[in-house]
Amino acid sequence: ESVKQVRPDGWRGVKAREQVIKAALYGVLQDVDEVERIFLIIKAQREY
Fold this sequence. Notes:
Elements: H1 2-6, H2 15-29, H3 32-44
Helix pairs in contact: 2-3
């Protein structure tokens, strides 16, 4: 849910925009490895 709130349009492939999403994930997960793991899943999903 937090990803949907913070994700900028056209974020895929744009490092700065991807970092916004990773920062939101880190705020929830507090674990860099988990953020990277979950981010890859989110990036593969079309609804995000």
